[in-house]
Design a protein that fits this description.
The chain has about 180 residues and is mainly alpha-helical. Helix content is about 50%, strand content about 0%. α2 (about 25-35) crosses α4 (about 60-90).
Length: about 180
């Protein structure tokens, strides 16, 4: 998409969302629960992105996903901070820097128990995120605008009507004549 002076670009205030200051291992530790916690907001954003084909039209739903993530990680900190910290630190210190879950099953089980008891969130089964699910939305379906087809001008009936063509022919020693 190319931009012109008439192209609307959002302001910084429209784009700004408070950052979530977490390391990649903490994000990986919370990802399955975050996916379940913010499922509706995430699907709403992805549907908007797929239907609108213009990211500027989905800024509000994008903000909703970010705010939901912030809310989720604040609740985790309030309810399961110790278990969450132990789990993400285990992932962070996994051999060969791979952040592999297989080395951290004990701390994962502790976090699973805490999330289930205190936040009523269960770890989704493997593959749940990639299953096709029907999503109901209140957002109206976008109306597709048909492209306007501009008619081309009528072709010139002789070279005399197109002076540029005559100039070009003169420079090439009338090879086309």
């Amino acid at each position: 998409m190319s931009a012109t002076n008439e192209t609307y670009l959002p302001t910084y205030e429209e784009l700004y969302v408070p950052p979530i200051n977490l390391t990649s291992s903490a994000l990986k530790a919370g990802a399955p629960y975050f996916g379940a916690f913010c499922d509706k907001e995430s699907k709403e954003f992805m549907l908007c992105k797929a239907e609108e084909k213009d990211p500027r039209k989905c800024l509000e739903s994008n903000k909703q996903v970010s705010l939901c993530a912030s809310k989720f990680f604040h609740q985790v900190r309030e309810n399961c901070a110790l278990q969450f910290t132990n789990y993400w630190m285990c992932l962070d210190k996994a051999p060969e820097g791979q952040m592999s879950y297989r080395f951290c099953r004990k701390t994962q089980a502790e976090l699973d128990k805490c999330m289930s008891e205190k936040m009523n969130l269960n770890r989704p089964e493997v593959g749940w995120m990639s299953k096709v699910k029907l999503h109901q939305t209140d957002r109206p379906k976008p109306v597709e605008k048909l492209a306007e087809i501009q008619s081309l001008p009528d072709a010139a009936s002789s070279l005399k009507e197109v002076p540029e063509a005559l100039d070009s022919l003169k420079r090439t020693n009338n090879r086309a004549l």
